[in-house]
Automatic annotation (TrEMBL):
Sorted UniProt keywords: Flavoprotein, FMN, Oxidoreductase
One Pfam family this sequence matches: Nitroreductase
Protein name listed in UniProt: Nitroreductase family protein
Coiled-coil ranges per UniProt: none
Domain (Nitroreductase): residue spans on this chain: 35-196
């Protein structure tokens, strides 16, 4: 079918998999991601820069509003810069844990046993910060948060596929990252420490939401 277009379009004809092969791939993908966990204990062992590049290339495949791709990933392994980021992050975290009256939020976090100490920001070999671009070349971007969130999800999945771990760290506010990383006009979205889990790494004993709580077939399957 030929359609009239004002802008360039190209054919898209991905191979259609046999049903069972497609389902097998889906099951394997779920098994892969079901083994992923957020990590706060990292090994200092080096991670090649290409791993970060590959994860960002995966993030770049994310759909975005009007295909504006309103994200920027900034990565550093510079020890001095990592130390400065940790110092600023811990300052905000001390306010959160010790100065702000947020009893419900603090209670919700209790089972994770987190605190204001964020030594992983120096131990992990890489820190990667995703930034949201509310404007590009003076023009507004659309569905910015949704677009950047999807890109970050793919970034996390790509890291896990390479045997790497990360954590979605979001100290509040995060404006110090804009200043430290020189990203004027962009909003810090998530701070990712990236590396291999430490040999003695532990994670909370958590259970994921079962399928029947995560999925509803409206109208049934008839």
């Amino acid at each position: 079918m030929t359609r009239p277009h004002t802008h360039p379009f190209i054919p898209f004809t991905p191979p259609r998999l046999p049903i069972e092969e497609g389902l097998d791939r889906g099951r394997a993908f779920h098994r892969l991601l079901d083994a992923r966990r957020s990590v706060r204990w990292f090994s200092p062992d080096p991670v090649p820069a290409e791993a970060i590049e590959l994860a960002v290339l995966a993030a770049n495949t994310a759909p975005s509003g009007a295909h504006q791709q309103p994200w920027r990933f900034v990565a550093t392994r510079n020890p001095d810069l990592k130390r400065r980021i940790r110092t600023a992050a811990e300052e905000e975290e001390r306010r959160f844990y010790h100065e702000r009256e947020l009893p419900e939020w603090h209670a919700a976090l209790a089972h994770l046993e987190t605190d204001a100490n964020k030594e992983f920001l120096e131990i992990a070999p890489w820190l990667v910060v995703s930034f949201a671009q509310k404007q590009q070349d003076g023009r507004k971007t659309y569905y910015t948060n949704e677009s950047v969130g999807i890109a970050c999800g793919l970034f996390i999945a790509a890291l896990h596929s390479m045997g790497l771990a990360t954590l979605t760290h979001t100290p509040n506010p995060m404006t110090f990252l804009t200043d430290l990383l020189g990203r004027e006009g962009e909003r810090p979205y998530i701070l990712f420490p990236v590396g291999y889990p430490a040999d003695d790494c532990e994670v909370p004993d958590l259970r994921r939401k079962p399928l029947e709580e995560a999925l509803t077939f409206a109208g049934g399957l008839a």
